[in-house]
Amino acid sequence: MIARILLLVLSLAIAGALRAEQTPAEKAGFASRLTIYLAKGAPDACGPGCDRWIAIEGEVDGDAASRIRRFLAGVKDTQRPIYLHSPGGNVEQSYVIGRLLRSRKAVARVGQTLATACAAGTQVDAACLKAKNAGGEVEAELTTYHAMCNSACGYLFLGATSREVAPDAALAVHNSRLVFAVHGHPPAALLAEFRQRRTAASDRDRTAYIAAMGISRELDELIHTVKFENLHVLTRAEIDRFGIDTRPLAETMWRLEKGARPYISKFATLKNENGPSFRTMEWRLYCDIKNRVPLMFAAEIDEAAVGKRTIMMTADADPNEQAGGFPVRAGKYEMWSGSLDFGTFRAIMASRSLHVREITRKPDDTADSTKFDIDATGLRSAWTQLGATCPPATAAPKSPWPSVPLQGRGS
Fold first, then answer.
1. Cβ(88)–Cβ(60) under 8 Å?
2. In terms of Cα–Cα distance, which of 58, 52, 55, 53 is closest to 22?
């Protein structure tokens, strides 16, 4: 009885919070408080027909849930997508925010919002944060490249009913730790017992929350095995298997890659029909050469597929024009390169989708065919950006293929 009384007194004397935070180096570039604001971009900035979204970024602090609740109460459009970019923070607050997002049937994606007014700054300096917190819509751009939702942010993300993680974004998990301040000098044994009880309670809370969000218990089991000092970036297969983002095809936005030979590119991960693994693919378009646009394609080889493969691509604005051929194998990748005349390229830019068909001719002369569509939204804008960086005269691209594969995105 005395021990229980002492434990009760100890719990009242300790200010504690469960955190799934990261090291100071990993938190660099993030505000110390969770920030939420309305953002507006160019047409189709957040997808076909979407140019407005909600940005949530920074560390999940101890008062975050109340601010998010007040903010969302004034946003009547419950389907305006929410883009998350956070290194983690307070776990209990993330549970509250996640349940709030579930009540709104929210659409959540991992992505970083870049405020136009902060282009010369760090996005988290005092002037930029003041602009983001001023109210009203903030002119901005979106990128999923290197965007992250780590640690406690992941619990917040799970609350949404529609969840999307692009192939170039990261959703990472690790176990939490109990952070508390002790007042006085309680016995070490009693302190250890208190820590053990709180840790067990937090484990039960996490298990219950993940189950309530309809996510596989495998995620809970995985988190339990990852030490707080480490961080596990979920692979595409895990994201799918756990029920977080079950799209068979996930893709990035078109993105400009500057350099000696600039290009625009798009990555996609496609689930293999023969199993639970995913293949990573990339498309690249280079500066035009003699009125033609160089196009390169690279993909991880489906190890279960046997036979000679053909890749063909057509635009929905002109289905009679095709580009493609027989890709060349190099290690675990296959590559194809060619060029498009401006007529075909204009048809692609005028299209919503690029239709891709892969045909595998087997040794017994039968064939398997895989068809999927790649989103062309944003291609025109990316091509305009590329044009501004192209040198006056461009030689044929000689960059090695494949590019470095994305880490933590495959099977």
1. yes
2. 58
CA distances from 251 to 3, 22, 318, 342, 375 (A): 56, 28, 23, 25, 8
Which residue type does 81 have? Answer: P
Contact call for residues 401 and 383 (beta carbons, < 8 A)? no
DSSP secondary structure of 251-290:
EPPPEEE-SSS-EEEEEEEEE-TTSS-EEEEEEEEEPPBT
Write out the two tokens for 287. Answer: 């500066």
Question: Tokens representing 247?
Answer: 């799209």
Sheet with 162-164: list strands edge to edge.
112-115, 137-143, 35-40, 52-57, 82-85, 107-110, 162-164
- pLDDT tens, 276-320? 899 999 999 999 888 899 999 999 987 666 778 899 999 888 888
Alpha carbon distance 17, 44 (integer Å): 40
Q: CA–CA distance from 210 to each of 99, 115, 216 (Å)?
A: 11, 33, 7
**pLDDT greater at residue 302 or residue 233:** 233
* Residue 31, helix vs strand vs coil: coil
**What span, in angstroms and rounded, lies between the C-alpha atoms of 293 and 285?**
7
d(CA 317, CA 379): 14
Q: Please answer whether residues 26 and 59 qualify as being in contact, where contact means their C-beta atoms are separated by less than 8 angstroms.
A: no
Residue 224, helix vs strand vs coil:
helix
Cβ-based neighbours of 3, under 8 Å, separated by 6 or more: 190, 193
What b/e string do you get for 353-376 counting C-beta neighbours within 10 Å, with b at 16 or more? bbbbebbbeeeeeeebebebebbb
| DSSP H/E element including 53 | strand 52-57
pLDDT at 407: 40
